[in-house]
Amino acid sequence: MELSRRRLLGTVGAAGAAGLVAGGAGGAIGAAATHDSAPRALTTIGSTKVAFRPARDRHQAGITTPLQASGHLVAFDLAPGSGRKEAAALLRRWSRTAEELMAGRRPDADTGVALDAGPSSLTVTFGLGHSFFGRTGLTKRRPVQLDPLPDFSADALDPKRSNGDLWIQIGADDALVAFHALRALQKDAGTAARLRWQMNGFNRTPGATAHPMTSRNLMGQVDGTNNPKPSDPDFDERIFVGRDADQEWMRGGSYAVVRRIRMLLDEWEKRSLHEQEKVIGRRKANGAPLTGGSETTPMRLDANGADGLPVIPANAHARVAAPESNQGAAMLRRPFSFHDGFREDGAPDAGLLFVCWQADPLRAFTQIQRKLDRGDALSAFLRHEASGLYAVPPAAEAGDYVGRPLLEG
């Protein structure tokens, strides 16, 4: 079944659209191992489609699409000798493959990895990095919003896992479907582009909770409560590039900031529940602000306790990141969790593949991150290890490929 806009808006609003969770398959494995009956088909998960060419808006899929259970982020650099012509041919191939896969069809020379599965809400989203424009001779058409992000004091960035000429976000509710798309797109790159970096992520499987709810991150915190919602009157203005943009080819597009953020889970888990809640500014049980109410109750940032101190500490993450603390700045957070094994000291190499969307990174991500960089209690438990910024053009129109107005305009 097609993913209708009404269902999309309702699901994104209910789930916060940018939460992330450590999901597990233990319950499903246990059930299959202890029952003789064959497993039942998850028809609602496998059959759901997301349109590559949306009928009602110009935005690429994977931005306001409800969070998927499995994801891959991957960046490519154009190969030496590849330029504008080769980039256009590559994006044409990629767009054709993405459209086929998202519709549940198999491309030529298919690997068969996802032969038995439906589209499973597969989305493929394409972006262009700062360096792409120099490689293709299009520097005059590079938006100022794509200027490199500033350095932050907490950064410990690995350049080999950052940036890139071309970026792809893949999401699906089935891990084999997501991998299948990753493999098909990598093969499509051929000799035109070379893999720069690739990261794998996950979220909770849709339907794993008794009712729709905001997800939790690997720290166990409800995550995504304050996300902008498509029902907000200024949502499009905050997230998508408007019609008055200097670069016409980006109108209806968005800008994605990508960060690999490792969580120091061993240190975090040593803290008491009370300490953790003070760091975040919300109750761990239900995501409610420390000033009371439910998850959706507005924070009372002016409330003081009996000791005269703010109930929500001055450096609590929820306070520092709130739009009220950042001149109204907001971004749509749509990340994945990751776990890449363990480090030499035995600590988990796990955390957040942070992906956020906005019409202007300088007025959203950069403004908020600068504030967090100066005094966020949560920063002591995080390590920013990779970063990227990408211009994500609008969706391709009928017969076109993503980025054609830029490359052929």
From TrEMBL:
Organism taxonomic ancestry: Bacteria, Bacillati, Actinomycetota, Actinomycetes, Kitasatosporales
All residue ranges annotated as the Dyp-type peroxidase N-terminal domain in the record: 60-203
Main location: other
UniProt cross-references to PANTHER family, sorted A to Z: DEFERROCHELATASE, DEFERROCHELATASE/PEROXIDASE
Keywords: Heme, Iron, Lyase, Metal-binding, Oxidoreductase, Peroxidase, Signal
Main enzyme class: oxidoreductase
InterPro entries recorded: Dimeric_a/b-barrel (IPR011008), Dyp_perox_C (IPR048328), Dyp_perox_N (IPR048327), Dyp_peroxidase (IPR006314), EfeB/EfeN (IPR006313), TAT_signal (IPR006311)
The EC number(s) this enzyme carries: 1.11.1.-
Pfam families: Dyp_perox_C, Dyp_perox_N
Catalytic activity annotation: heme b + 2 H(+) = protoporphyrin IX + Fe(2+)
Cofactor note text: Binds 1 heme b (iron(II)-protoporphyrin IX) group non-covalently per subunit.
GO cellular component: cell envelope; cytosol
UniProt entry tagged with the keyword Lyase: yes
GO molecular function, a single term: ferrochelatase activity
Family in the record: Belongs to the DyP-type peroxidase family.
Its biological purpose: Involved in the recovery of exogenous heme iron. Extracts iron from heme while preserving the protoporphyrin ring intact.
Gene Ontology biological process terms from the UniProt entry: iron import into cell
Cofactor(s), names only, from the UniProt record: heme b
Keyword Nucleotide-binding: no
Name the UniProt record assigns to this protein: Deferrochelatase
Domain Dyp-type peroxidase C-terminal per the UniProt entry, residue ranges: 214-396
Location in the cell: Cell envelope
